[in-house]
Amino acid sequence: MQNNYKEHLYKILVIGDLGVGKTSIIKRYVHQNFSPNYRATIGVDFALKVLNWDQETVRLQLWDIAGQERFGNMTRVYYREAMGAFIVFDMTRPSSFEAVTKWKEDLDSKLTLANGKNVAAVLLANKCDQGRDVLTNNRIQMEKFCLENGFVGWYETSAKENMNIDEAANCLVKHIIANENDIIQSEVPDTVSPQLNSDRGGTCSSCFKS
């Protein structure tokens, strides 16, 4: 069994407007702590989370990208080689949700997987402990938004109350591994199986929950 043991390293982007709680989500997920007084991230910051996943080790390199970076050219450098992304908005600030599509478009325009597909992205409706807005109360509308914009799922999260952050991360890792397996299979010669290059894409409905 030891010979089959694998370790995976995945770069994950955490993006969204300034002040939506990206740093707080990462600190909660990696270090299990919360502070209301984090300084605004300048440029990019990093954190590492190690998971045991199906008897394998998964290392997540989380890139905490400053909210103002979308307006510069550095995101292309920051996005390079990422396998997945969280896009975060603040449920108490509608303008931060309006920016979600811009962040997703920026991500998709600058980063694709080896097979040409977009990287897996999960939408986080953060600060749900402070109350829900009209949009997130309408789950059908949120699921429609995610499908139309290429998200694999969405979650209401709270870094303060530690709500749904682990669940959202597990959803993203599941889709990253599935995409990686698709890429590996697509590199196998056609003589092995004529179905290998067929499109097996789609969304995981189980991720569409908060």
From TrEMBL:
<keyword id="KW-0547">Nucleotide-binding</keyword>
<dbReference type="InterPro" id="IPR005225">
    <property type="entry name" value="Small_GTP-bd"/>
</dbReference>
<feature type="compositionally biased region" description="Polar residues">
    <location>
        <begin position="192"/>
        <end position="210"/>
    </location>
</feature>
<dbReference type="InterPro" id="IPR027417">
    <property type="entry name" value="P-loop_NTPase"/>
</dbReference>
<protein>
    <recommendedName>
        <fullName>Ras-related protein Rab</fullName>
    </recommendedName>
</protein>
<feature type="region of interest" description="Disordered">
    <location>
        <begin position="191"/>
        <end position="210"/>
    </location>
</feature>
<keyword id="KW-0449">Lipoprotein</keyword>
<dbReference type="InterPro" id="IPR001806">
    <property type="entry name" value="Small_GTPase"/>
</dbReference>
<dbReference type="InterPro" id="IPR030697">
    <property type="entry name" value="Rab29/Rab38/Rab32"/>
</dbReference>
<comment type="function">
    <text>The small GTPases Rab are key regulators in vesicle trafficking.</text>
</comment>
<keyword id="KW-0342">GTP-binding</keyword>
<dbReference type="Pfam" id="PF00071">
    <property type="entry name" value="Ras"/>
</dbReference>
<comment type="similarity">
    <text>Belongs to the small GTPase superfamily. Rab family.</text>
</comment>
<keyword id="KW-0636">Prenylation</keyword>
<keyword id="KW-0472">Membrane</keyword>
